[in-house]
Design brief:
about 280 residues, mainly alpha, 10 helices, about 0% strand
Length: about 280
């Protein structure tokens, strides 16, 4: 009997998950339709500007600190192995390729999800709990066009900028350790960085960050619009927004990494080695 109940619970959870994904897809399509139908109305500066500040400018300190320290940690952990191989002068190329292709975009997106995603879900969830969303609908206002679209667009626009900022700080953090602490010549660090990184590596990272930002904004707004009643519901919405955004970032990163690697192999069928 317990086995039957467990199977039934698993089936119910599976059905709920599929239904929830369907509702989220419908919500995302509704937001896209509002943007396509009324772009000027949804993207008025008085709606978009404050959200860009919240998502972008207010996130700069946390992205700067984490980006710089991640670069330093990578350098600290890598130096012993590279030095044993006699390739310490090539650390700049390896570290910075890792930063601009994977670590920078994912790190910036996770910081946005943690700092902004939960806040957006809590803000919109509070509006739902206090019936402000219902009041907007009663006054024939469109809460998706007025509240959701500007927030999602702000996440899409600002996440690549934060990613670039994280890339730059990560590279300089690694330089600080590699050159100033371990004594690797600075010209070697930057020479092999320039040799390893062309236009396609940072472009791929910025391309991925567009999707990360869109996923964060849509998930946070959806969780806010569908949160449960009371303060507990708002808290659960904020928490689940971050968790779902983090999972989405990892899954999107996997898919886009494979896609971009395929494109890179088509453009550069015989890439050179970073360490010779």
């Amino acid at each position: 009997m317990n086995l039957v109940a467990s199977i039934a619970d698993f089936g119910n959870h599976t059905i709920d998950t599929i239904a929830g994904f369907g509702r989220f897809t419908s919500f995302a399509l509704a937001a896209a339709a509002r943007l396509a139908r009324h772009p000027a109305k949804c993207l008025r500066w008085r709606l978009l500007g404050p959200q860009m500040f919240v998502v972008g400018v207010a996130s700069v300190p946390v992205v700067a600190i984490t980006g710089a320290f991640i670069g330093m940690i990578l350098a600290l952990e890598s130096y012993v192995q590279f030095n044993l191989l006699g390739q310490a002068d090539r650390m700049g190329g390896i570290i910075n390729v890792s930063v601009v292709k994977q670590i920078g975009p994912v790190l910036a997106a996770v910081m946005v999800a943690g700092r902004v995603g939960g806040a957006l879900a809590a803000e919109l969830g509070t509006m739902r709990v206090t019936e402000q969303l219902d009041a907007m609908r009663a006054m024939d206002a469109d809460p998706i066009g007025y509240l959701v679209v500007p927030r999602v667009v702000a996440c899409v626009l600002m996440t690549p900028i934060l990613t670039a900022y994280s890339d730059i700080l990560g590279s300089w953090g690694a330089w600080l350790v590699v050159v100033r602490v371990f004594g690797v010549p600075g010209q070697d660090y930057w020479h092999f960085t320039a040799q390893a990184i062309g236009w396609i590596e940072p472009s791929g990272g910025l391309f991925k960050s567009l999707f990360f930002g869109g996923a964060i904004g849509l998930i946070a707004c959806y969780k806010g619009f569908t949160c449960g009643p009371g303060a507990a519901g708002v808290g659960r919405a904020a928490t689940s927004a971050f968790v779902a955004s983090f999972i989405a970032i990892i899954m999107i990163n996997l898919v886009l990494a494979q896609f971009l690697n395929t494109i890179t192999r088509l453009i550069y069928p015989d890439p050179g080695s970073l360490i010779g």
